[in-house]
């Protein structure tokens, strides 16, 4: 089995809060993140598969870039995540939820390789990994 990781970048804003909580409780639980704030995200998409003997590749990078750009970057870049994406209607726009959203948008669209891992770097010190539903590394 071989693995290939492609890196992407996007900027997005979000706000952690519960509308049925008071402002005080939102700030107690979420701190300053109860305010609208943004991040310059780094997204790593890792696929796995066998090497195609004709091409020497496990996936066509052009197809992978098209899938990620169309279904992730074009949607998330410069968005207010919880307002722009219906999937987040009843979910916090955390990096933990973002990687699940990203997985579901990419996994079924891949051809010739399988999604192995989504890694989302929210800040220089926070990275979230996801290996798919029910999976671990």
Please outline the helices and strands:
Layout: E1 2-14, H1 23-30, E2 37-49, H2 61-76, E3 79-80, H3 81-84, H4 95-106, E4 114-123, E5 126-130
Parallel strand pairs: 1-3
Antiparallel strand pairs: 1-2, 2-4, 4-5
Would you kindly provide a brief summary of this structure?
With 137 residues, the protein is of the alpha+beta class. The chain has one domain (2-130): 6-pyruvoyl tetrahydropterin synthase/QueD (Tetrahydropterin Synthase, Chain A). The protein is 29% helix and 31% strand.
Protein described:
By secondary structure, the chain is of the alpha+beta class. It has one domain: Tetrahydropterin Synthase, Chain A (2-Layer Sandwich). Helix content is 29%, strand content 31%. The chain is built from 4 helices and 5 strands, in the order βαβαβααββ. It has helices spanning 23-30, 61-76, 81-84, 95-106, and strands spanning 2-14, 37-49, 79-80, 114-123, 126-130. Strands 3-1-2-4-5 form a 5-stranded mixed beta sheet. Strand 4 and strand 5 (126-130) form a beta hairpin. The radius of gyration is 17 Å and the shape is elongated. The protein starts with a strand and ends in a 7-residue tail after the last strand. The mean pLDDT is 95.
């Amino acid at each position: 089995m071989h693995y290939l990781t492609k890196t992407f970048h996007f900027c997005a804003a979000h706000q952690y809060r519960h509308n049925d909580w008071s402002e005080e409780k939102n700030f107690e639980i979420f701190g300053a993140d109860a305010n609208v704030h943004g991040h310059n995200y780094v997204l790593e998409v890792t696929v796995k598969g066998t090497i195609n003997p004709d091409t020497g590749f496990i996936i066509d990078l052009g197809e992978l870039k098209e899938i990620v750009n169309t279904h992730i970057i074009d949607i998330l870049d410069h968005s207010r995540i919880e307002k722009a994406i219906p999937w987040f209607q009843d979910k916090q726009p955390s990096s933990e939820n973002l990687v699940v959203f990203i997985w579901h948008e990419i996994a079924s669209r891949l051809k010739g390789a399988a999604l192995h891992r989504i890694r989302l770097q929210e800040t220089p010190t926070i990275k979230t990994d996801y290996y798919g539903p029910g999976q671990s590394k």
